[in-house]
Amino acid sequence: MFTKAILRIPGSNFADGLTTVELGTPHLDEVLAQHAHYCDALRECGLELTILAPDLRHPDSTFVEDAAILTPQVAILTRPGAASRLGEVAAIRPTVENFYSRTLAIDPPGTVDGGDICEAEDHFFIGISQRTNREGARQLAAYLNSLGYTASTIDIRSMTSILHLKSGISYIGDDTLVVMEEMAENSQFNSEFARFNLIRVSSAESYAANCVRVNDRVLIAEGFPHLRDELIARGFNPLVLNMSEFQKMDGGLSCLSLRF
Ligand code: CIR
């Protein structure tokens, strides 16, 4: 169960952030409206929100998930792999420290983006990506092991269609992973996923593979009816949100909040 979440309102320069997709320029009024709906959805799931003011120094800072990894016992401040995002960690640190008496940090030359970290019960999948390097993964795994979790790495660098590990997989509780087809088919990853039930997401719906279990709901992006129906068929309760403006900046549902 989560009780709280941290978010940051997108800044007026949101469109100046990083992106690898060519879906057009986000419209600020729609960005803000979609963000407000996302906040409402988390409240509907029972969370108490801490909503931070826009940070114009960091256009990508609404994607708060990348700056920290929150476990029940400790917070691990990350070290984002994109230079333009490094300062987001210092910016969010005081807020995280309001809730956690113990924080750990990833040190140079390690880099970790929270979007590469997928927690599935007592196990953490750590994506090695353009943003998270092996040294960052090593430091993080050592912290997690000391806290009693297991960890394994999944190298997604050959998968050019996704930015972060969690762009392609999500753990939605009940021993179930939502996995984009390309990953589910990859023989390198099969053994990693063997102990879980898999919901495969076709390539036509791959953006929807980034979904988020929040208490008794699963937040999913609007416009992906096959995944929505599959979730319902398996007894999950999806809550659908329009994510079009965040998708333009490579952002998914999970990256807009830190839930704990
Ligand atoms: C970036 O490229 O860093 C941002 N425009 C998007 C980050 C999305 N974060 C995530 O999926 N965890």
Automatic annotation (TrEMBL):
<dbReference type="Pfam" id="PF02274">
    <property type="entry name" value="ADI"/>
</dbReference>
<dbReference type="GO" id="GO:0045429">
    <property type="term" value="P:positive regulation of nitric oxide biosynthetic process"/>
</dbReference>
<dbReference type="GO" id="GO:0016597">
    <property type="term" value="F:amino acid binding"/>
</dbReference>
<feature type="active site" description="Nucleophile">
    <location>
        <position position="255"/>
    </location>
</feature>
<dbReference type="GO" id="GO:0006525">
    <property type="term" value="P:arginine metabolic process"/>
</dbReference>
<dbReference type="InterPro" id="IPR033199">
    <property type="entry name" value="DDAH-like"/>
</dbReference>
<feature type="active site" description="Proton donor">
    <location>
        <position position="164"/>
    </location>
</feature>
<protein>
    <submittedName>
        <fullName>Arginine deiminase family protein</fullName>
    </submittedName>
</protein>
<comment type="similarity">
    <text>Belongs to the DDAH family.</text>
</comment>
<dbReference type="GO" id="GO:0000052">
    <property type="term" value="P:citrulline metabolic process"/>
</dbReference>
<dbReference type="GO" id="GO:0016403">
    <property type="term" value="F:dimethylargininase activity"/>
</dbReference>
<keyword id="KW-0378">Hydrolase</keyword>
